[in-house]
Recover the amino acids of this structure.
């Protein structure tokens, strides 16, 4: 369920979206998207440049397949219920993340079809059966070959810069808005959600310049502590609240392998990692407890000072790990409260 304050913000989002939609309808007969080519012989529609080239979307899409994290939230908030999504981490027993399910049921009366898992890469047949006119996969590791195969089904927009780098939630919202021919509505959603982030940050000036690390809990017997890199969404949203990433980030980046958005710090080097606060997720509450009681980790500054937040509740962990205009309404107020408590020596380890 959404927090009361979150529901209020969601209603405001819907109200603004409705007004923008009405204006768009009124103007439809006399205007075209900013990116629409006007010359008869030129390519018409909206064109989006990305890591695999460029994608032209000739008409406003109505049947959208939204793959991976984050994108389904944005599509739904921008006025279209996706025709298909993948089941992602943080989904409940129904296969949907709770804030997404609540939103689409309230606004569309039904949930999208869940595309069955494919062992290798996207489920091309499952996607094709949905007859999409647009495929979005901004938070993914879609390869060149996978992109080409998806593009044979429908215009496809993958990641913009690199694998598993979705950029900021604001940029993702604008990119999806452009692909859906809903630039103005996207800007309204960004403004509304940014107001929430800004107002919560303003309530906690103690966050300013506090140094943090976002990571993972230890597995039993583990010798490395997993940590996330600077372009990971959970790192970016924490920075937007006033916190500052550790000075060890350069060394994190240097040790990351391939397209990974995370790396590991050897426990013997952990004391060299500057941090006032540690935020993490784990598979269970027991893993969180095991981590903070580890004889080395327990003496690391943020753990020794009880300045940590560890989520093993998958919905909460995924909501802050992949922030969107919907998941932030659901989770950000609680996340901010948990961070504030941790800086006062009142840590959080939740879950089962």
């Amino acid at each position: 369920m959404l927090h009361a304050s979150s529901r209020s913000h969601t209603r405001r989002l819907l109200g603004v979206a409705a007004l923008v939609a009405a204006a768009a309808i009124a103007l439809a007969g006399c205007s075209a998207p900013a990116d629409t080519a006007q010359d008869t012989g030129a390519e018409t529609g909206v064109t989006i440049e990305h890591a695999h080239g460029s994608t032209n979307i000739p008409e406003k899409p109505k049947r959208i397949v939204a793959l991976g994290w984050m994108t389904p939230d944005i599509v739904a908030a921008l006025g279209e219920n996706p025709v298909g999504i993948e089941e992602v981490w943080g989904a409940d027993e129904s296969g949907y993340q709770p804030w997404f399910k609540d939103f689409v049921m309230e606004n569309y009366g039904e949930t999208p079809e869940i595309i069955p898992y494919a062992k290798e890469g996207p489920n091309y047949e499952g996607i094709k059966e949905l007859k999409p006119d647009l495929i979005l996969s901004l938070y993914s590791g879609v390869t060149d070959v996978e992109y080409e195969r998806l593009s044979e089904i429908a215009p496809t927009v993958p990641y913009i810069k690199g694998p598993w780098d979705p950029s900021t939630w604001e940029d993702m919202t604008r990119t999806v808005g452009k692909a859906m021919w809903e630039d103005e509505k996207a800007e309204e959603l960004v403004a509304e959600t940014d107001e929430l982030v800004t107002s919560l940050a303003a309530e906690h000036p103690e966050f300013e310049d506090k140094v943090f690390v976002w990571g993972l809990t230890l597995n039993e017997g583990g010798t490395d502590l997993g940590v996330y890199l600077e372009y990971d969404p959970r790192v970016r949203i924490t920075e937007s609240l006033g916190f500052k990433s550790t000075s060890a980030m350069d060394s994190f980046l240097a040790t990351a392998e391939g397209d990974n958005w995370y790396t590991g710090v050897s426990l013997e080097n952990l004391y060299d990692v500057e941090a006032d606060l540690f935020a993490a997720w784990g598979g269970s509450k027991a893993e969180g407890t095991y981590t903070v009681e580890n004889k080395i980790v327990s003496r690391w500054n943020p753990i020794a000072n009880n300045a940590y937040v560890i989520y093993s509740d998958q919905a909460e962990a995924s909501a802050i790990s992949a922030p969107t205009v919907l998941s932030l309404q659901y989770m950000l107020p609680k996340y901010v409260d948990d961070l504030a408590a941790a800086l006062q020596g009142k840590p959080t380890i939740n879950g089962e």
Summary: Residues 203-349 form a domain with the Rossmann fold fold (CATH 3.40.50.1980).
